[in-house]
Structure formats: structure tokens, C-alpha cells
Automatic annotation (TrEMBL):
GO molecular function, one term: RNA-directed DNA polymerase activity
Enzyme class: transferase
Alphabetized Pfam families for the sequence: Integrase_H2C2
E.C. numbers: 2.7.7.49
PANTHER family according to UniProt: INTEGRASE CATALYTIC DOMAIN-CONTAINING PROTEIN, PROTEIN CBG26694
Protein name in UniProt: RNA-directed DNA polymerase
Organism: Parnassius mnemosyne
Occurrences of domain Integrase zinc-binding (ranges): 40-97
TM annotation in the entry: none
């Protein structure tokens, strides 16, 4: 059994079908807030990432805010990993941020005499 299947199996009590769409009932840690998240099939994950990070409503907000926006309405296993990967590979974000590794100057050899 795949890790994705195992994850959905353990959440069986939180899953329901509403209007022909598989949804997940999510409650916060205190249990005072509950809402439904649509379960996204693996094939549609890039579409959601494109819309919420790179699309008109996205704005290249970075990992944290993109993840918050997606989790308001959607759910899939390994969502955080997919969002982090998408943001890391985003060419627009990379162009604004600049290079991740700072270049260092060339090393030079100096002859040192006795003190």
C-alpha cells in the first residue's frame, strides 16, 4: 500500500463526498473551527499550484502564504512538499531573489616570512 493510500486510510473518518466531490473535514487543534477542504487528485496538483502561486490571485507570495491560501480550500498528501518544490523551481521568484549561493573571491597564496 502506498504512503498516500495509507494517509487517506487513516483519515477515513474525516473524508466525505459532497456534491460528487471528495472532501476532507478539517478542524483546528482547539476544535473550535471546522471547514471542508476539497481533496485534489495528483494530476490536478500542478493546476492548483499554478493558480495559487503563479496565477493572477497568487502573486508569488512564497511558501508560507501560498500554503496558507491553498489549505483554506484544498488538501492532498504531501501538500507542503509540493508547494516548497514549486516555489523553489519558480523562475520569477528566483529572478527576484537572486542567486542563493554567494560567490566567494579567489584564494591567493601569500609567502609569509619568520616573525
Amino acid at each position: 500500500m502506498s504512503s498516500t493510500t495509507k494517509s487517506y486510510w487513516t483519515q477515513w473518518d474525516s473524508l466525505l463526498i459532497q456534491d460528487g466531490v471528495l472532501c476532507r473535514k478539517w478542524e483546528n487543534g482547539r476544535g473550535d473551527r471546522c471547514h471542508l477542504q476539497m481533496v485534489v487528485p495528483k494530476a490536478k496538483v500542478p493546476d492548483v499550484l499554478q493558480l495559487y502561486h503563479s496565477g493572477c490571485s497568487g502573486g508569488h507570495l512564497g511558501v508560507k502564504r501560498t500554503l496558507l491560501k491553498i489549505r483554506e480550500r484544498f488538501y492532498w498528501v504531501h501538500c507542503r512538499d509540493d508547494v516548497e518544490d514549486w516555489c523553489r523551481k519558480c523562475t520569477s521568484c528566483a529572478a527576484v531573489k537572486g542567486p542563493q549561493i554567494r560567490s566567494r573571491g579567489a584564494l591567493k597564496l601569500y609567502n609569509v616570512g619568520a616573525p
